[in-house]
Amino acid sequence: MNISRRAVLGALAVGATGVVPAWAQDSKGLIVIITPSHDNPFFKAEADGADARARELGYATLVLVHDDDPNKQSELFDTAIAQGAKAIILDNAGADASVAPIQRAKDAGIPSFLIDREITQSGVAVSQIVSNNYQGAQLGAEEFVRLMGEAGDYAELVGKESDTNAGIRSSGYHDIIDQYPDMTMVAQQTANWSQTEAYTVMESILQANPGIKGVISGNDTMAMGAWAALEAAGRTDVVVVGFDGSNDVRDSILAGGIKATVLQPAFAQAQMAVDQADRFLTDGSTGLEEKQLMDCILVTADNADQLETFALAS
């Protein structure tokens, strides 16, 4: 059963009068799913995957968006606590800022299961299931170097500073690229995971570095923004590599635009988190370590046609 925030709050108000809400009667309890904005298809895939799996297992679900705002995320945690959620599935709004609300939920008896992004403390969440961003970044960097012919000026677009994934991916990129002395980074700028911001940043980089040969991006959304700016400038010769495995980048690869991306399995990762939440609620333990890594997969023109909604067809 998928329920709106308004419906749950209304049900709680009724529950205060002694009437049990219908969703509480008809399910194993409420799982709250909190992610960044669904404008980014990666986060929508996470929410959809968690929502579908939770309902399949007999839970009511409440899907909420924090918009990468730690204050809003904190308010949503208060809402989940007030609603008596059984568990929270979270793609967090900041590695440091998320610790306190997760601890607050834990103190209220509500376990949190993290996906995609880590936090800076262990023992607060039950699970932290993340893509092996370092391994994936190395895959992307190796392909980028190959496509660049091991030489040339390039730019790097970096994600949000508050997101540990941004730094991990950048480190993975450079641990490969920096081994090649003829690869020269002429610009490194954040575009905060944003397509619109990446377009503007790419315009500025192009003006300052007209001889640029490649762009390696911390995610697919920024890669799409960079590619749009390159197309507008008539620079479709520039090699662009992304990270995520979105359908938009898949289509660009198949059309001969962006050259490659790195798939992190958002849908499967979210469903795994729900499975672990269910196991924890049933048995008191997931039987697994808190921090878990899922390997990433390189996507190129050779296998892009098998990619759909952050998963490769088997």
TrEMBL record:
Pfam families on file: Peripla_BP_4
Ranges where the Periplasmic binding protein domain occurs: 31-282
Record keywords = Signal
The record lists the membrane-crossing segments as none
Q: Where in the cell is it found?
A: Cell envelope
InterPro entries xref list: Peripla_BP_I (IPR028082), SBP_2_dom (IPR025997), TAT_signal (IPR006311)
- Signal peptide start and end residues: 1-24
Q: Report the sequence similarity comment from the record.
A: Belongs to the bacterial solute-binding protein 2 family.
Q: What is this protein called?
A: D-ribose ABC transporter substrate-binding protein
